[in-house]
Structure formats: structure tokens, C-alpha cells
User: Fold these one by one.
Assistant:
Number 1:
Amino acid sequence: MSLEAAPLVRDWLGVAMDPSGDRAVIRTGKVDLGQRISTALIRIASEELTLPPDRITVAPVRTGTAPDEGITSGSNSVEQSGHALRCATATAREAAAALAAQDLGLDAARLTLQDGVFSAPGGANRIDLLPLIARLNPALAVNASLPASARRAHDARLAPRGLRAMVEGRYAFIQDLELPGMWHARVVRPPHALAHLTALDPEAVAAVEETGQRVIRDGSFLAVAGPAEWPVLRAAARLARGCDWDRGDGLPEGAPFARLDSDPAISLPVARGGKPEEGPLPPPLEGATHSLRFERPYTLHGSLGPSAALAVWEGDRLCLTTHSQGIYPLRESIADSLGLELAAVEITHHPAAGCYGHNGADDAAFEAALIARALPGTPVLLKWTREDEHAWEPAAPAMAIDVAARVEDGRITAWSGETRGDTHRGRPRPGPGRAGPQRLLANRFRADPMAPYSGQPNMNRHGGLHRNLDPIYDFDRRRLVKHLVPDGPVRSSALRCLGALANVWAIESLMDQIAGETGQDPIAFRLAHLDDPRAIAVLEGLRDGLGPAPEGRGIAYAQYKNAQTRCGVAVDLTVTDRAELRLDRIEMVADAGRIVDEDGLRAQLEGGALQGASWALYEEVRWDRDGMLTRDWDSYPVIRFDNIPRIAITLIDRPEDPSVGAGEASPPPTVAAIANAVHAATGLRLRRMPFTPDALQKAALED
Amino acid sequence: MGAGPALVSLTLNINGTDHTIQSDPDTPLIFVLRDELKLKGAKLGCGLEQCGCCAVLADGAVTLSCATPAAVFEGKAIVTIEGIGARPTGAAVQDAFVAASAAQCGYCTAGLVVAVTGLLEANPAPSRDQTAEALTPHLCRCGSHPRVFRAVEIAAATADG
């Protein structure tokens, strides 16, 4: 996919001639979100070019120069950008070897490449790689069939890019940018998403503008900008007191799960392999012996740094700095929103706090553009507040999953899975009906407001809602259905794992339930339904590494999208006498194919497990008719240092197999293993997240 | 510029140097650090003292800077992440965070380095539970907590050795 859009070697690789030493410059459309993709890409280039990592840099990810790789999402970056870069650098190396052979009058096969230098046998006739790469034909196309280098860089430890600067406070996040003459900005938010600004007190505006700050209004979109940050915050508070909002009927109240059954849905069968189809729904499962329903609430990305963006208009040209995961789709949607040519908008990625999916980044970028338009030539740094991020980021949609199975002689012979929820596709991607601009928050509030995006079904294999709905296990028959229930009460979009989190939790909970009821060991029961040798190796590895089971141990297994990293998880926990869950230990075995960056891979799996644990134990978006109730870290708690288990991860390296994405592999089986551990400890089958003390007590009463 | 709130003169001792500034007396310390003094290592995460990204040392105590007015810090010795490496324990903590790769996105990292330095200066050999208690005011959304625990162990082993 990446190579189709950017087929040339020079799209991916350049050379910076520098008196202190030439460096390879790699280009990518994928951006760093804390997941260390640039560190992984440097390792790949290092393997193929034999250069030490400090002679490889990553070019800024900017529209016009970076390859268009869509969105940094879906754990696809190593597979897409990494594969493209591996092929591009290998192609460059081979072509450079031919040039070297020509220069030296030798057969290319007799040259060896070491530390970026070609040499003939005996070490004579040395010639540097990078100047040769600089001479390559610019039209040289990437050869996608070259095998990966046998050289492995992962033994040599490579500190993650930027880590030293982070620990010294020198790493500049987008929130830290500073340009000469830069102004700060804040948005004054409506009480909720359906409110409209009917009047703004002129005295409030005058009080703010008297201090040299500017009030920017476009319909119900209201903001303030000024030269210093704290006075801007004060001005935003002053303006907020001067607003009259029409709240309409308020936000729709009521249980989000009941409406997933009652509201109009787009229902589609999902084929074996995870692809939705047009057509009639399959008949209900006959002879089901077990069935359970699982419910996951709206949950947040909860980036630690609220979203931000830096915008400046020079005439009709807009330059934006953003932490969006998709600079090219964002450019199209912003250009469309403002009636600009694409070429009039330049977008550069700059790192921010981890986002874990589509948080407020894109919305903040567009809002910064709107504010800066009123201040031509002045760079404007817009920061969202904590409350903005909690109340206005697009949440992961609430989901409800019904799973059922027919068990015969201790084996599952037929399976049914139906998954329901709103869209995971809230990113501002261009689409029919101006779907890109519709998905930018501010367009709902401007003087000529746009209706919010109404979700359309994702028809891709293992797309949003039906990601991992298809069980990985070997069942004779299966019926799978997705029900997209659009226009939910809370704006929704992509959060790490998308539908896989709840779908895997449902599948692995029912697997656990059936194993228990039929008196089978949970790992042995799964092994009996698997024929993939790599899955079997993961589960056997997990089994062999576990000591005696404490009371509260749960097991789960999943392979992300049934195609990426295989991950088996065991969780040991204790239920306190106040019905709190204390996480004691997590054991994990994972197979991500050929390992690129071992420490980065471990960090992703470990961090994913803890984020999954946080969603499972603590997190739920709540609201009433007057607005969101979860507006900070007290009303929306997440996991903290007082409940961190010991985590041990065993990696299975597969040097001959492709490297596959790992960033979203561990949360789903971790959530399921936690639920299964609660069942082991208490006999309670938890069927609604989060697993709070209240939820445990409620489950005990229902039991 | 027109009428803003009345400014007062404040003298703040930051990383060993006195800075005299004119400030709205309500301004939380973090805005003085970041906006006036361009010390941007401390991060604004919430403004509500709920996440710990903005931690500094004030007379050696780990203190959140996002909500308390700068005026309250007059007369105290403030150490920010920019000055933490000048303290032997701080430098050991920074090295330990690198050795343990104890960060993913890094947004919580400056606050955690300050907090761990404050912890180890007060208690050079904390138990895991003591570390957990000291760091519970700090959020990490990427899940680097196990590596931070490891970094504390490494720093504790090196800081006094």
C-alpha cells in the first residue's frame, strides 16, 4: 500500500551531505506517538545499509515531502512503512553496489558492505555507500521482492529517539513550541455538543479586547487569543460568563446499551475471515448451549497532554503544525472546510503526548486555523484544556456483543457473534457528503453549521466494529453479524484496538465459561480448538512459564485482526474485601514475527496491557442532559502507580517471518484475562466494563 | 495594552538563580516558568493537580506547579526539571530512566524524574510500596509504570554507590 503511493527509492531515502559526516535521511508518512516507530524505522534502515543508527535521521513528516501513508493507525506502521523502507533501502544498497563495482572495476558480488563502506576482498578499494546512494538514478523504483537483510540490529541496544531529551526536560512537545510574535489561544466551549450561542455580552468582549487580546467568533465557535497564555485563560473564563447558550433539549439521556438494540441499525453479515458483506443476515444459531452478552461503555483516549496546534496564515496560505495521525487526510478536510486549494495548506507533524488513536488533535488543528485566520501573519498556538480533552475528544463508542456457542462432547461446534455500536471512523478523512469536514468538531458550530457525520459501515476486513469478531478458533460453523448503530449520544472514533477490545473480551469470556463448565483447563481447551502452530507455541509457552495458579488467575489469547501479533496473557489478581481488584502479576507470550526493536516491542505490549487494565477497571464516560460529567481525572479515573502488577513478557522471534504490528495486540487479551481472573476468584462473570467495586457487587446480586 | 489585573513584583529562586518578574499575583507557577522564563520542561497536563506532569521541587519537596500561584513560592528554593541534573540524585535518576527506557511518549517523564528525585533524596532506598505511594499522584497513560519502578531501583542502587 505504501509503495503504491510512493514507488521510488528517493521517496523513502535521501542523503544529507554534512561536514561532520554524511547521513542517510529516511522519509516516512508515519508519525511518532510514543510508540517509537521512528526508532524501529532507523533500525530497519540500519540493518539494510549497515550504517550505525546515529548516521540515520528521520525527515520531518510534512505534506508535500513525506510519502502519503494515510493515517498512523491499526498497528500497521511496521508492516507498511517498515516494509517499504526495508525494500527501498535494500534496493538502494544493491544499486549502490553496482555503482561501486563499476567505479572499482570489480564484480559487485565480490564487494562486502560493512559500516556503510564497500570493500573488495582483503579490505582494499574501499568506497563509501552514502555518496553512491546520492548518485542513484532519481527514477529508481523500489524492488519489493528483495529479501530482508540477514543482518540484525536488534542485539545492539538503541535508546529510543528523544529519550535523553525527555528525561532532561528538553524534548519539545507541540505544546512547548515558541515562535517570535506567537500568540496563545483557548476556545470557549458550549455546555454540550447540541448547544448554540445565542448571545455574547458585549461588555465581556470589550473587557477582554481592552487588554489587547482578541475575541474570535464564527457562529457558536468562540475563542480568545493573546500574547501571553495565563491572561488568555483568564479571558476565556471571562468570556464564558458572558455567553448565553441555547441548550435545546439537552443531550440524550438513558442507557447507551439499550439504545444499541432499539435505535435504527445498519446490519451486515460478516464472513469467515472478518469481511462484512451485503446480503441477508444468517439465521440464528441452532442448538446454542451457551450465550452471554457483554457491554463496554464509551471510553476515552485520555491523552496526558491536552491537544494543541500551531497555525499561521501568510496571505491565503495556511501553515499548520499538528500532532494529527494523518496529515494528508487532515489537509484535505481543512482545505475543503475553508474553500482552499490543497496547495495552500501545508501541514507538519510535531509530537505531542501519546494519543492512542483519534483524540482532539485534528479538531485542535482546524480550530487553530480558524483562530489564526483572524490574525494574519501571527502564529497562534491553541491549547485545549484538560476539560476540553475529556469532554470533547471523540470517545471509543459503547459496544454490546452477544456471543453464543453450541458445545458437543466438550467441543465448540458452532459459534455466533453479534457486535453492536456506533462508528470507530470519526477521523476527518475525505468521503461522500463532505464526510471529512463533517468530522471536524468546529464545523458543527460555525455560522453555517454542518450536520455531524453519521457513521457508515466499515467494509474492510477486521475493520472497526467487527475487528476480531471472527474467533481465531477452529469451530465447524460460525455466524457473525455487525450492527452499526450510528448517531449515538457521544461523538465516537478510533481508540487503540477499536472493536477488538470488546469483541475479544466477549469471545475469551465465553471460552473461559465453557472450559470451566466442561471441566477443562483453559489453556488446554483453547489448544484443542487451534491448529495454527504459532498460536499453539504462544499458549504452550504461556502454560510452561506459569507457576501454580493462585485463586484469581485468568487466561486469554488473541491474534490482533487474526493476522498480526499473537498474544497470550495470564493475569493473577486479588479481590479485596472492598471488592477492589488488585493486579498482582501479568505473564505474556507474544509472537510479532521478525523482531525489529525488541525493547520497543516490549514497551508496546507492556504499556498496552496496562492501558487495557485501566479501561477494564476504571474507565467510563458519563453524561446527563446538561453535558458531559467526566471532565477531569477525578471524574474519569485511570490506572495509577498504586495498582501496577509485575509484568513478564516472553517474545518468540521469527526471523524468517514478516514483522507484524504489535501496538494493539495486548490490551484485548489482557482485559479478557482480567475478567476471567475475577471469575476464577469470585465465580462472577463480569459482563459490563468497567470492573469497579460497584460492578462486582451488582454482579454478585444478579448472580 | 489596556487594563489587565494589577501586576506585582515577585522574586523567585529557580535552579539557584533569583528571577524578579512582574506578574498577576494569581498566576500559577507553571505559567511563570513556561511563559515568562521559557523553562518548558514542566508540562501542563491538567491545571487541577491531578496528573503530576508539572512537578517541581520546592525546598526539596515534590510540589505541583499548575494551580498554586507563583507568589506562594517566594522565598522557596525551586528546582525544575532543567535544574534537576545538577543534583547528584537527579542526575542518577535521569540516567536510570534512560537505562530502563522508562518513557514512551514522554509527557509524564519530566514530572516523574522530579518526583523520583524528591523521593530518593528523602528516602534513598524506598520499598516498592513506598515508590508506588510517592508516584500515585502522577499519571502515565502509555503504561511505562513497570519501567519507572525499575528506574527507581537502578537509581537507588547507583545514587548512593
Number 2:
Amino acid sequence: MADVMQTTSGANGAAAGELLQVEGLSKYFPITKGFLRRVIGFTKAVHDVSFTLANGETLGVVGESGCGKTTLGRTILQLYDMTAGSVRINLDEGQLDVGSLTPEERKLFRRRAQMIFQDPFASLNPRMNILETVGEPLLVNGVAKGTELEQRVARIIEQVGLRVEHLRRYPHSFSGGQRQRIGIARALVVNPRLVIADEPVSALDVSIQAQILNLLQELQGEFHLTYMFVSHDMSVIRYICDRIAVMYAGRLVELGPKDELLERPRHPYTALLLAAVPRTAKGSRGKRLVTAGEPPDPANLPTGCVFQERCVHVQDICREEDPPQVSMSDRHFAACHFAKDLNLDGITVAPVTLSA
Amino acid sequence: MSDTGRGDLLLEVRNLQVHFYLFEGVVQAVNDVSFDVHRGRTLGIIGESGSGKSVSAQSVMGIVPSPPAKQLAGEIRLHRATPDGGIETVDLGRLDPRGQEYRDVRGGEIGMIFQEPMTSFSPLHTVGDQIGEAILLHIPDSTPQSARERTVDLLRRVGIPRPDRAVDAYPHELSGGMRQRAMIAMALSCDPALLIADEPTTALDVTIEAQILELIQELQDDLNMAIIYISHDLAVVGGVADEVMVMYLGLVMEHADAETIFDEPLHPYTRALWQSIPKIDGPLEQLVPISGNIPNPFAVHKGCPFYARCTERIQGVCDESPPPVLEPRQGHTVRCFLYADDVDLASNGAAGD
Ligand SMILES: Nc1ncnc2c1ncn2[C@@H]1O[C@H](COP(=O)(O)OP(=O)(O)OP(=O)(O)O)[C@@H](O)[C@H]1O
Ligand SMILES: Nc1ncnc2c1ncn2[C@@H]1O[C@H](COP(=O)(O)OP(=O)(O)OP(=O)(O)O)[C@@H](O)[C@H]1O
Ligand code: SF4
Ligand SMILES: [Mg+2]
Ligand SMILES: [Mg+2]
């Protein structure tokens, strides 16, 4: 489609202050068989996901392995073609319909939406020094070159807590935490608005995680960034996010403001996930609930609610009908037939943890 | 468990020192590590990457690759049960790690589970064949038939559904959680007195991790097994360990019962570590990162290895000589100058262990 960019953000019903609107987004991967690669089914990695991101907020996306977190992020960024649905982003330059970008729009989108990856070791090219690594997106997108490029790289390198003397060094001479800083610099150097961070601290040592989390928070203020922060670690999500989205078997089962969702979860899966995290406070340390079962195979989902097999509140209707998205407020919903009726336990925050 | 709350002494490790002689230099992977393990009890080992947790455990198993590793000092004594109901002491350090006697200990008295189940299993054989082989090797008078029956039994016991079918599955046909269970079954195949678990749940989701940990604890209660549980996840260790050892760069920095380590930590490193991790139920504003990076493993430290990152360091003291191991309270040891009294400081902290 050769649409011209729209100049008014706020078109298409975007509420003021909204950066991203995701509607009915699905991504299915074909399952093939034999030499002819006949398609025999689909992995419904992401199915019918809708949410919006406000400018400057951090949305945490949490869920167990294989629930579709990475696929959701990559589909939003157009690293995967979407199977269905739409993604719109509201930039100063206008609104983009990410599913049908013109080549020119695609260039702009590539700069304004960036990704930070989990594995700082695998995501850097060992043969490129830091100047080349961080400068590459500027060069490729035709944003800067020569001394201007070097100046911009030097500035961002300092902002992420590395030193300019490091510019000519190669990735192997950096620690895991430093490499993740390089990855962050590379994402931020093109002035993005949206940053999707996929497990950015999961590969880091515990003592380094906090440094990177704090850095991401500082940079968010400085660069007016909106984050989608993907993690399987509920404690990390709790620390860094404003709102939390919980995924299960490709579905968004609950989304809500952090405190509300943690203290009073509305979806039984959210409650189960929270209960499984070991507590740290004196008196309840190490306590966690054990529930049987594993998530279903996303290529072979049951009719009705995807969580029915593990749910202790399951009723007949759950095996027959897809649960609707029940709204608790305009910013909090849960996809459960009984979201309004159940009284589920969440997290009780301890007043003080350290005595010494 | 005995009436005193501490089981019988099963394993004693004293002043273990293991270095790696590599082309780039010497890595002092384990420098001075001592601990006891009691029947029916769990020792947790925490510390960041490269602190020597795995090498300590591998030394007990006799599986540290040598060369490049060399055990320079230390004793590892196993007090094992004899067939007639007595106890005999084996000095594992004296045994040939490749010899038959050590092999009988591995997979006999001591079982081990790793983070990555594929390091225990070969992808080429079925889970059942591999567990069965371990049983045939270690359990006297077993036949292929009895070994298979025992395998199915073990798989059932670790919570694998349809164990009579899973026994013929190849490792890659099982989910991550099920593979981990199968590995536990293998480690348990010979009723070990000691189970060494090296980050057994790090690659798993919390819900599956909770299942595996519950399983390990049930088995411990049933078999009065001792467990060494290694993890970098403090919250997890807080849930499983009776006592905790905190390691940093090959040294035990602090050792106490679990309650004390988390509620009243003394060592600046333990405190910093605890304050730096996000907690599911802690106040949000308390996350304080540890500054700096994990030091270069080839570096040799004249003073305390944590000096460069320590917020409580005493210049001219902590960087001058190795901190002593002190016992400010009964059963609570800490390797730090802050707890040395003036006498020790005057004698320049040399009053080590
Ligand atoms: N490129 C791909 N081709 C085929 N299937 C895929 C592909 N990427 C992901 N899948 C499948 O889609 C589902 C969702 O995977 P995804 O990687 O998005 O999960 P995740 O939530 O990021 O998991 P993790 O926590 O393990 O990273 C899984 O069943 C996965 O096997
Ligand atoms: N086979 C080996 N060859 C060379 N060096 C090794 C070997 N095994 C361990 N080391 C080194 O010994 C030190 C201690 O390693 P160890 O594996 O015990 O750390 P760890 O505490 O288990 O860390 P992690 O949390 O990353 O598993 C590290 O510096 C490591 O690089
Ligand atoms: S010995 Fe000194 S530097 Fe080391 S932890 Fe104690 S106070 Fe800090
Ligand atoms: Mg992922
Ligand atoms: Mg290790």
C-alpha cells in the first residue's frame, strides 16, 4: 500500500498520549511434514492479542517458556509477518500502520522501534569494535556518518556507563554486563521511541542485573522511551514495570496496573504464577505453592479456555467457550469467565526485609 | 534426621584448593573451601558466576578435568555406610578419580544433577536404557529385567506421567521439566546418600521449578538424603537450604544457617547481594546494585578479593592482607576484617583459620 504518512497522531481513534495500538494480533507458525513440507497444522504462538502502550510507560510481558512473549515482540517489530491483526504506532512524524509500511515508512519505523536482546554474547558481532557495532544502525539508516557518527556513538557510550576509551575494543574484552550496555547503546543511538527488551537481564549475573535495570530506568527518563519489557521473572517485572501483561499459550490472559494485578490478580493463571515465586520476607521465606501440570502444546490447544487443564476453578463453560476479555476498569482486564467472581490471592508486600 | 536436628555427619571437606593451569594464566577457582554435610540436611551454595560453586561440587564427585585443574590442597572425607550397618571413612582425595572405587562412589553414594539435563543424558539412547545401565553397574545382582522395572518405578516416583512409555523415550522427546525429572531419577537410581544439585532448576519456569524442588524435598524426607544445592538464586536457596555458604572468587565469605544468612548477614558481600536482587515481596525502593564488575579470574588478590566492590572496606587493611575467617557467633563464620577485634588487626589479620 502506498499510503502517505498521516500527519495527525490521534487518527484512527488513538487516544492522546498513546504510542502503540495492537489489535487482534496473531502469529501462527506452520508445522510441516515430509520432504514436500506439507503444512499439517499451526503453532498458534500468538493469538488475538490486543493492548495499547502509553507514551513513556513500561509494560511488562510475563509468562512461561513458549507462551509467545518473544514472538509477540518480534511480530510487533515486523521481524515476523503478522498472521492477523494490526499494529499502529503514533510518531511525531505521523501514524504508521506497521502491517503495511511503504519503504520510506519502514526506514522510519526501523529507527523508532528498537529491540534489546537477551544474550549479550550472541547478539554482538565479534569482528566489529564498539564504534562499528554501535554506529552501524546510524550508518545503515543514513542518519549519520564520519565524525558526526563518532560523536553520537561516544555520547551514547558514556550515557550507558561505558568509557570512550572503549570505542576501539572488541566485544570479547567486555564482561556480560558491559556487553549488555553495548547492546543498549546500539538500540538507543538512533533515537527510538519504542524499545522492546526481550529478557535483557536474564543472562546476566545476579549482581549485575540491578545495574542494568537501573540503567534502563534512567535512560527511559532521559530519552522519553516507552518500554515493552519481556521477562519470565516476575520479581524483575515487578521492579521495572508500570503495567503487567500475562501471557499463557499464546493468549494475553490478563493485563493491568502493576500493584492492582499483583495484589489482586483476576485470572487464575496470574494467581498461580504469583504463588509459585518463592517469597523472600522473613517469616514466609522460601514459601511457594506447587501446582501440577504444564502449559499446553500451542499446536494443539483445547476448545474453550487455554488454561482449563490446570485451573482449579474450571467449570463446564470453560471447556466450551473462549472466555471473553472481562474489564475490571478501563486499564485492567482478564480473559476468564469468572474474572469478576473469583477472589484470588496475590502478593503481600513485606514492610522490611533487611534488619542489619 | 537425628534428635539434635542435625543429621549424622556424611561428608567433610577441609581447606580445598583447586587451581586451573590455563594458557592465559592460573585461575584460582577454589582457594580455601571447607564445609560439612549432614544426612537429611541441605547445604545451599550461593555466589555469582565464576565463584567456584561448581568446581567445589565437582571436586567431591572427582570429575574436575585434570589437567588443566590441579587439586593443590584439601581433604574430602566421606563417612559411608557399610553393608553390616557400620560406618567407614573414605578419603576421596586419595582415590584415583578414574579408578573403579571412585566410580562406585559416583552413582553409588553420591548422585549429581546438573542445570542442563543433556549433560547427563546421551541423545542416542533412550532414557530407560541409560538409567537401567547405571542400575546394572551399581546395584548388585540386578538383571536387565529388574533394572527396567526399577527404572519405570523411579520415573513414576519423580512424577513422569505414563512411565512405562516414557522409559522408551529419547531425551529430546521429553519437555524440559520432564527431562529434569528423568535426570533426577537417574541420580537417584542407586539410592545416593548425597545428592549434589548444581543449578538443577535454573533453566526451568518457576511453576516447574516449584514442582521439581518439592519432589527433591520429598525424596530427601523419604531417603534421609543429604543435599548440596547450588544456585545463584537467593530466593530459591532460601526455600530449600538448612544452611548456606556464600562464595566469592573461590573463597567461602560467609557460612551460617539459612535464617541467619538472610536475616542477619554479616559479610558485606552477602548483604550487597541480597540488596541487589529484585524480590517479589520486598519494598521496591531497596534495590541497590553492587558496583563494578565481577573481577578477572586470573587476578591475584593481595587482600580481600571483594575489596574493589565493597562499600565497607577499610583502606590500608582490607587491601593489604587476606581477611581472616572469624566466628563472631557460634556456627556463623565470616571472612572479613570488619569482625576482627583490635588484637587481630594489630597482628595484621594473619590470624586466619
Ligand atoms: N521461528 C519459529 N518457528 C516455529 N515455531 C516457533 C518459532 N518461534 C517460536 N515458535 C514457537 O512459538 C511458541 C512461542 O515461542 P516464543 O519463543 O515466542 O515463546 P517465549 O514466551 O518467548 O518463550 P521463552 O520464555 O522460552 O523465550 C513456541 O511454541 C515456539 O516453539
Ligand atoms: N574446565 C575448566 N577449565 C578452565 N577453567 C575452569 C574450568 N571449570 C571452571 N573453571 C574456572 O574456574 C572458576 C570457577 O568456576 P565454577 O564453574 O566453579 O564457577 P561457578 O561458581 O559454578 O559459576 P557459575 O555460576 O557460572 O556456574 C571460573 O573462573 C571458571 O572459569
Ligand atoms: S574484608 Fe574489607 S573489603 Fe572485604 S568484604 Fe570485608 S570490609 Fe569489605
Ligand atoms: Mg523468548
Ligand atoms: Mg556453576
Number 3:
Amino acid sequence: MDYNFHWRPVFRDLPDLVEAGFVTLQVAVLSMLIGMACGIVLAIMRMHGSAPLRWVAVSWIELARNTPALFQLFFFGFGLGAFGLHLSPFLIVLCGLTFNNAGYLAENFRGGFQAIPETQMRAARSLGMTAAQAYIRIIIPQVLRLVYHPMTNQMVWAVLMSSLGMLVGFRELSGETQFFASRTFRIFEYFAVTAVIYYVIVKFILGSSRLLAFRLFRY
Amino acid sequence: MIEVSELHKRFKDLHVLKGINLVVEKGVVLSIVGASGSGKSTLLYCINALEAIDSGTITVDGEDVHAKGTDINRLRRKLGMVFQQWNSFPHLTALENVALSPRIVRKLSRAESRDIAAKQLEHVGLGDKLNSYPSALSGGQQQRLAIARALAMEPSYMLFDEATSALDPELVGEVLDTMRLLAEEGMTMICVTHEMGFARDVSDRVAYVHDGTIEEIGPPEQIFGDPQSDNTRRFLAKVR
Ligand SMILES: Nc1ncnc2c1ncn2[C@@H]1O[C@H](COP(=O)(O)OP(=O)(O)OP(=O)(O)O)[C@@H](O)[C@H]1O
Ligand SMILES: [Mg+2]
């Protein structure tokens, strides 16, 4: 093998790569927060909704879980584009990831909801709480604890999935790397460094998730 | 006053309540006894509308519980309920368990709600457990927590659904003592119970439910000393 490594260009661009890492983290966190909200609503729609609502929820969940994440991204890019609706690369990635997160999380949440005894709801309602108050104050906090680990996994998955953004022109970590790499032809070096940055991001998420759990779940 | 008239309740093909008529005046302690599956819990759940009814009417202080326009969440504040499974909220401390509904349902301030919660926990003998999570409390303590939680809504009536039957025998006494205390303070109570001693000593009236109707109702001396119905006599002979 007569390939000579040249690391200098990568280190020169490192600040830009790190900055792109923050873009990745940002889109992943946002897609996770919105995805959680959608996932809870989808789970409730699937369990208690009328027939049309159930149909919407089941279709969403099935599509999100059984088609490639890349196609889901393409739908929000080229798919909507074909109908004249052009989203920015950031929005394409955000919508695609959120769609995927919500589908996976909805099934986790459904399992969580079913694990909470029905009597918790009865007790809350007997105290005069509305159904919404009972969900928000009593049921969902318990569900979030039950699905905390699957949620952390999904968050990691969202970070890694966001690398698909480079295929729709989004300058997150992978897109940015691709841009620099093709300019200097130091493809291996750039992607090696980027892999390390991904690794650091994931470890950071796992660490903060553990800290947060420690703060949140005292019982 | 709680008034139940011609109440019918079915679960699909199962006709559980077949024309219940019942009046509970203010200040009365009523015990409801009867065989397992006779519909005692269902009757309580119909009174605070945790179950829908098929026909008949239930009024609380003149207000129709199951009428369309009734604000059931407001009405339920008057009807404290304690369940067989104590149902503490596991993610909240004892104080938070009790303070939550005063704050979000009665819309009191955080400080007021906490004061009320602390006072009610003191009342049921849990004054030293304010910051404990339910997982650190015994069954009897959790059941007293559930009583404090219901009392914090300042209800006019308390409904008890076999409050002691999921407890270890040595913990039954402390919960019955708390219920006795409430009765002495003049709370209006409907207690579904298998504790015949409690029914005889504490209640003003005892109702025997048989096959979806009230077979016999009267003062405890009559029900336990001189039952008028054969079914009542047979049931009491069995549980003694
Ligand atoms: N949600 C429900 N769906 C269908 N059947 C039900 C439901 N709840 C109760 N039942 C049935 O209704 C009947 C009366 O039940 P209920 O719980 O009121 O009896 P109970 O007198 O409280 O008995 P126990 O002393 O065992 O608590 C039983 O046959 C029970 O199986
Ligand atoms: Mg029962």
C-alpha cells in the first residue's frame, strides 16, 4: 500500500468539523424532543383513538419502522418537492428524523402505557383530575421512566441517522466532512476524524443520560 | 345526601346491578357487605362515575351524577375514594401525592397545598413520612396515604372499596383505626368491607348486597342480631 497519510488539512478544518458536530447534535436533540411528543400522541391514538385516528397512527408507525430511514428523508425532500413544497435541508432532516423517532418511540410508549396499572388512572380521576391532567401528572412521568433506556438508544440512533443529511445537502457533520474531503481528496483522514467526533457525541449523550436519570428518578 | 334509585348496570351480557335503591344521609356511616362478585365495587364506581350506568339515577346533594351537563370533575371533589389496591403515585413523595390535586384541581397555591397535605398526613399518622416515596412505605402506610390524599380535597363523602383486604393482617388495624377516626369526626362514609367487626361497631347502617340488589338494609343490631332475610342469614353464617 503506498497511500501517504496527510493529517494537516483535517486538523486545519477541525474547528469547522466540531461546529458541524454541534449542528448534528442540535438536529438530533430537536428531532428527539418533537419525536417524543408525537410518539406519546401516536401511542395514545393507537390505543384509544377512533378508527380513523388509529389508522393514521398505525400507518405512521408501520412506515417509520419498516422502510429505510433514507427513504423517509427523501420523502420530505424530493417527495414533497415533487408537489412544489420545498423544505430547507435542515427541515428535511428534522422532519425525516422526527418521523422516524416518533414511529419507534410510539411503540415503546405503548408498551410503557400498558405496563402502568389501570388503577393509577382511576385513582387520579377519582381525585377530580381531568383525563389530560392525569396523563400529564401521573401516567406519562411513570412511562418516561419505563422507556428511558429505549429512549436513550433512540437518541443515539438519531445522531447516527442524521448523517444521511449529507445526501440531501445538509451541512451537518457528515455533509461538512464530505465537503472538505472532496475538496482535498483526503477522504480517509477526514472521515476517520469525523468518526471520532461521532463517537465523542454518542458517549456524551450516554453520559448525560445517565446523569439526568440520576437526577430525575429518585424513587 | 347521596340518592341512588333504580340503578341498573351491565357489563355486556352480565347484569351486575339490578335495580339498586339507596339513600345515604349526611353524617351516616354505611357499610356494604356481600359475597364476592355481587357488584359492591361496581356500585361505588357508579356513584363517582368511574363506571357509566345503564339506567336509573344517582344524585349527590341533588346533582345528577350521570346527567350530560354535569361537571363530573367538580362533583368528584365531593366524593373521596379509597381503593383496595392503595394506588399511591410511585413517582411522588407522600407530601407530593397529597398536595398534587389541591394544587391542580382546587387551584390552591403551592404553599397552601403543601400545608393542607402536611396537615392531612399528620391526621392519618404519617407526619414523619412527608418526604418518603411510596416504595419506602408499608401497605398500611400507603393506604393511610391514600386516605390523606382523598381528604385533602375536603370531600363531603368518603367511599371505601375494601380498603383493608389487600393488607397483611397485622396492618389492617391501623387503617381501620383511621377510618374509625373519620367516622367519629362525622364524615359521611360508604364502606364496602369484609370486616364484619368494623361494620358492626362503626357503622350506623349496614346493607347486604345479594345478586345485584340490596337484599336487606338496617342498623347493625338488626342485620347482625336479627336478619330478616334468609339470604342475609346464610351469608353471615358463612363469613363468621
Ligand atoms: N370492567 C368490567 N368488565 C366486565 N366485567 C366486570 C368488570 N368489572 C366487574 N365486572 C364483573 O362484575 C361483577 C361484579 O364485580 P364487582 O367488582 O363489583 O364485585 P364485588 O362485589 O366488588 O366483588 P369483590 O368482593 O370480589 O370485590 C363480577 O362478576 C365482575 O367479574
Ligand atoms: Mg370489589
